[in-house]
Every structure is written in C-alpha cells, then in structure tokens.
Write a structure and sequence with these properties.
Rossmann fold, 242 residues
Length: 242
C-alpha cells in the first residue's frame, strides 16, 4: 500500500481508512482542518489510488494495515474508517485490539445483502462504465465528492481494475460483524448520516449494540459521505477524542 504521513510526528497517531472507489485523497479536507494536532497515517488501500496490487479481501487488507501500524505506530493509534474502510477498522479492532486505541466507525454496512450475486452480476456487467467520464461524474455526485477532489476521483475511477471493483464490493456487501468486535475494550464511536438508507441505520445500531460502551451518533443533514460533507465537524470530533 502507498502510505502518506502528515502532521506532528510527536502527536498521537491517527489512521484514516478511506472508502471503496476512492483513495487517501478523500481525507484531504479533514487533514487540512486537523492541522498539526495529530500524526496522521493515510494508506491507499490495495487497488485504490497509488497502491499497486489489486484488492483481494478484507482479511488480507487488514493484515497489511496491521503491518503498517506495527512499523509506524507500534503502541497503537486511533483508527477512523469510512464505509469500506469502516468495515476494515472494525476487523482491525476485533483482531488486533493492541493496535487500536480508539475506533471511529463511519457509515459501515454490517448486514449482508440478501442477494449479493445479483448485485455483483450487475456490477460486473456495468464495470466498464466507470471509465466513462460522464458516468464517473454522476458517481462523484452520489458520493458527495467536492469539486476540489473531482480530478482525483475521475483519475482513480478510470484506472481501477475490474478485479478490485468486484472484490472490494463483494467483501462490502457480504460483511458481517466479527466475533471479536464485542470484546473490544477501548473507546469506540459509531457514526451514520441522518439521510442514509435504512440499511445503514440498521447497521449502525447493530455495530453499536454489539459493543457495550460504544457511542452512536446520527449526523444531521448528511448522507453517505460525512467526512466529505462535513469535514469541519468530523475533524473536530476526532480532535476531541485525543
């Protein structure tokens, strides 16, 4: 994985895990607002952005993120993940709690789709559309990509492989909470946009309900894009958790 580090090297470590179909650049507005209050570690997940190998599985990706933390923040870090990245944050907290001092789970689907094969079949049939600029622009609007990040999204959307698209979405729509999540002892915050689909609200309640002591908040006037829609609020929430 390509890994960006920014902020104060002496500040508490914060790992930001992006969603599927984007890359580490999605955190730029949040990073600008955090300033030097944290030492921020932002990987491009496999198959995304500047990372090389295709995405294969959540399990392999979590192992790769764990290796990054073992090298760069061996005493642990706050881990905040969005969407697919939030599922990874849950898995990391469940399997390597020694590396996660605080988990911030943003818009994670935690209830598998009833007919994942149909969803993936349609995705496979339309995968080539992602390379069409007009289609990518429509997708960017759905994902709340701001104008200043549009060029990054269009570039990465055009070069994402079919293998990465199908593997990452397949893992996302089949995701269920790992047993170890209920045993995570450190602080955890679960976030969902007020305007997200019922599935996402049900998932947020399931994630929160499975972990005693966690906190659940619904962010007003937000859909599936809290860090992009409200980077000011999101940065402040993270800073308040140091």
């Amino acid at each position: 994985m390509y890994v960006l580090e920014a902020g104060d090297v002496h500040a508490p470590a914060l790992v930001l895990l992006h969603g599927g179909g984007v890359a580490g650049w999605m955190w730029r507005p949040v990073l600008e607002r955090l300033g030097t209050t944290a030492r921020v570690i932002i990987p491009d997940l496999p198959g995304h952005g500047r990372a090389g190998e295709a995405y294969r599985s959540h399990e392999e990706t979590v192992q790769a993120v764990a290796r990054v933390l073992e090298e760069r923040a061996p005493h642990g870090a706050m881990v905040a993940g969005f969407s697919l990245g939030a599922q990874l944050a849950i898995l990391l907290a469940a399997t390597r709690p020694d590396l996660v001092t605080d988990a911030v789970i943003v818009s994670a689907q935690a209830e598998p789709l009833r007919f994942p094969r149909a969803t993936l079949g349609l995705l496979a049939a339309t995968a080539s559309l992602a390379r069409q600029r007009w289609f990518a622009r429509l997708q960017a609007k759905e994902l709340f990509i701001p104008e200043e990040l549009l060029a990054d999204y269009l570039r990465d959307s055009a070069r994402m492989s079919r293998a990465t698209l199908l593997a990452s979405v397949g893992e996302n729509v089949r995701f269920t909470l790992p047993a170890g999540w209920a045993d995570f002892k450190n602080p955890a915050l679960v976030m969902v946009g007020e305007r997200e689909r019922k599935l996402m609200h049900d998932s947020a309640r399931a994630i929160h309900g499975s972990l005693p002591g966690s906190r659940l908040i619904s962010v007003p006037d937000c859909g599936h894009g809290i860090p992009l829609q409200r980077p000011d609020l999101f940065a402040q929430i993270l800073a308040d958790r140091w």
